[in-house]
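Key idea: predict the complex, not the pieces.
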Amino acid sequence: ETGVTQSPTHLIKTRGQQVTLRCSSQSGHNTVSWYQQALGQGPQFIFQYYREEENGRGNFPPRFSGLQFPNYSSELNVNALELDDSALYLCASSAGLAGTTNEQFFGPGTRLTVL
Amino acid sequence: DAKTTQPPSMDCAEGRAANLPCNHSTISGNEYVYWYRQIHSQGPQYIIHGLKNNETNEMASLIITEDRKSSTLILPHATLRDTAVYYCIVRVAGNTGKLIFGQGTTLQVKP
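Result:
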């Protein structure tokens, strides 16, 4: 069974640029959630996708957007990057709609640095 | 959303039990208590969850008080590899199931 994978591992961008982060969910999982973790803080929920539809969003501006594909992999896109977007971006997958008690399994994250 | 309160840090001797407390006094009747941990620079790892009964798995035990206002995660025989930030999370009701992480407890296991 393959776990959650994310790419790239590290990324450096400059202010104003756009970035796309990728996540492959664990086999059999159809729900993907994205989190942002600033240095020294706990992860913050960005949004969740279930069967290719957004299914809940945290307090993040519209320049944070996402996609989920038929194979349940997902992308996180961030436009007009700001310095405060520098963080570890985490993807988590789970089986079924996450209103159940199914636990979320996290990937290793993508470290984004905005200069 | 229910919130949790955890001590910022704790120490534990290797081989001894680590008992990590969590207060969640505003928890709703249909909300579960989840525990995750995050080892430095890695993604959070699921440990255990429960509603009102005590739970045990190969990693840990979860003790929830009868009034459900607090819980304790127990690592029965802590090892150096258990050094991590431990997050106590109350699962949000509704169908998003988003996890709301607080600051967590940094557990340092010492030889």
